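Appendix B. Extra example for self-study. Work through it before the problem class; the solution is given directly after the inputs so you can check yourself.
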Amino acid sequence: MPKLEVSLLTGRTIDQGRGKEHGKLSEEYWESVTICEMDPDDMRHIGAKENENIKITTDFGSVVLKVVKSLRAPHPKVVFVPYGPPANLLVDPETHGTGMPSFKGITAKIEPAPKEKVLSLQELLETHFRKR
Amino acid sequence: MPIISNVTCPVCGCFCDDIELLVENNVIKEVKNACAMGEAKFLGFSAHRQTKPLVRKNGELVETSLNEAIRKSAEILTDASYPILYGWSNTSCEAVRVGLELAEEVGGVIDNTSTVCHGPSILSIQDIGISSCTLGQLRHRADLFLYWGSNPWHAHPRHLERYTMFPEGRFRKSAWRGYISRLRALLTKKRLTRAAKLVLRREVSAPPRVETAIPSDLQQQKRKMIVVDVRKTRSTEAADYFLQVKPNKDYELLQAFRVLIRDDELDVDEVAGVPVEILEEVADVMINCELGIIFFGVGLTMSEGKHRNIDAALSLVRDLNNRTKFLIMPMRGHFNVTGANVVFTWQTGFPFAVDFSHGYPRYNPGETSVVDILCKEETDAGLVIASDPVAHFPKKAAQSLVENPLIVIDPEVTPTSLMADVVFPSAVVGIETKGTAYRMDHVPLPLKKIVDPPDTCPPDTEILKRILHEARQLRREQE
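Solution. Structure tokens for the complete assembly:
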């Protein structure tokens, strides 16, 4: 599978903002945070089509998300994932003495993952978090 | 049906105070003037709600009485040697005040969401100082709005409409018409591209365009907006000019502007992916405005450089004030994150990351900030209020948080409350209970009570007061 090295940005979207107000358990919220916006040329490069699953891997974790074409390309090798539990599996916890982790500009690798599925919130919590 | 007007919106830092609600039989039926997020909150706040307190027994969350939940929470906090109390930005100042008293009582660390938002901005403001103002001043007087690392269309949807580009100011005209013309031109371009694609039966896309000149009307004395960001967004479409900076290169760009503002020369062809000629023209626009402002978002605080980026932005504004009038303001996220900083400061002397474990307040972000404490696994219990760190902290920090005994006070069911040991469903601040909150420009405004909460959902303030009372009694018994 072709891999592409990218710079990962996480951030707010209006859909994520509206979804969280409808409820973190709502379908609307989960759909809004399990996407990755990508430059169409980069999608062609790795052979991924709109709404197919891709896997993003950083030094801190990996997650499967649905890829969508960025409406405001070109931004080659820059991908965007909305704030939410999936994005947080990828971000850098290092605060460099400021208290603030690095949520933007993280080096990541992207590859198509047609055989892997996007986890639900419950599955994600069960996979990555546990009580002592 | 009664219409309640002048309601404040408890969502983002804009904290709009012109919302109208139509209420019937204790239910909000219609919302006027709110953005998509505000409307979703007023209409949908009770859609996915848990109304009874919960406690974890044999690995499952089960319903319990409020008294038992209070008792259990007080035990968790008093038994812990280094508890963290986190959140506070989506609740009232009154609740924050009680929370600080509780943190002092149990000798814990209290931190608010600015630690993962504009915490680095606060560090820089403490070092450099800030030239700022209220949003009302800008609405009437400012002619240059520079949004840096910020996407107001998505994160603060009414910011442009209420405070910057689109309101009719006393001394500045609305820039609404220019925006509509730009949108029309953009739509026409999109339609033509689609038509060409259909006719030619292949993908038609314009080659990446490098801006070679900035629009000539940017030098005119009218309201204008420049966006500096790493990618195009809806906000850049509302702007007169978009400056695309390479990811993690904001510091270089800010320092380059400082050089140009001082009339020095740059010995390079481009900085952060932007040709120097463009930078010179934008610097001219900054110098020639009558009153300018930089609104900076978490694009600066969350990327490489963090507080050093803000140092450079604050210093740029200081330099600009030698040439014209210029101001700067962080785009605060939650509706009362500014209030949390204010109440923390007047109670303890410090705006966030306050450690009471020595019996007196200590402040050392990087050591006493909650993400660092969690990543070093130094804490042994947590209380989270009006926040969802499992959805917003890096995995390592969130894992550490949920491993320990965890109390959650939140009106909504969240990923964090699903992992908690005690859950208090509380009344929604600004809808079901009143209070005070601070807008992003430090203007305090009242939060209204619109409808009654369920009997089993007391306000945050009451829950915290009862936990504090119980914790005090337990500590007396232990002594």
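Self-check: Residues 4-128 of chain A form a domain with the Barwin-like endoglucanases fold (CATH 2.40.40.20). If your reasoning did not lead you there, revisit section 3.
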